[in-house]
Amino acid sequence: MNDINARNIVVIVAAVIIGLVVLGFIGMILSNIVPLAIVALIAFILGRTSHRVNYLQLGRNAVNRAREAAETSVEKAAARAETRKEAAGYGEAAQDANQRLAQEARTAAEAAAARAEQRAAEAPARLVESETPAEDLTAKPDFVVKTAEQIQAESRLIEEEAAKKAQAMDVQSALEERRRRLLGEKGDQE
Fold this sequence. Notes:
By secondary structure, the chain is mainly α. It has 6 helices and no strands. Among the domains are: 7-48; 60-89.
């Protein structure tokens, strides 16, 4: 009986493994090969149906048509506006207003040009003023350059002071003070 059960278990495990391998292969085909095949089929069909079509010329024609449509619509809108102005009697008044605006724009442009020329004339003077420093910073240094002997003498003094402090300090009293600080009242009980 054990042989039959063991053989059945091995057959079931083998079938599951084979099924997983087959599913993996099918998944690979569906995820990689099928989309490429669909694209190839569409490209083949489009290529066969459009073998006598010049796509560059087709694009140029579309752009030209759009440009012509835009130009004609602008021309039509201008003609409509002109007829409205004439019908309303605003033609001469509008021309006078346009001439006044053009004159004001010219005078504003002339004034701006005059201001620009004046600034250009003043610019070298401003540049000269900004290029000269207020004072020479290297004339008065804020530090003193020490010689090697002065540095050694200073370090000897500092070392002597540190040695005096170390000699004056009582090691036992320092340990007791530290113990009191760290332990608080518990240090006094010992």
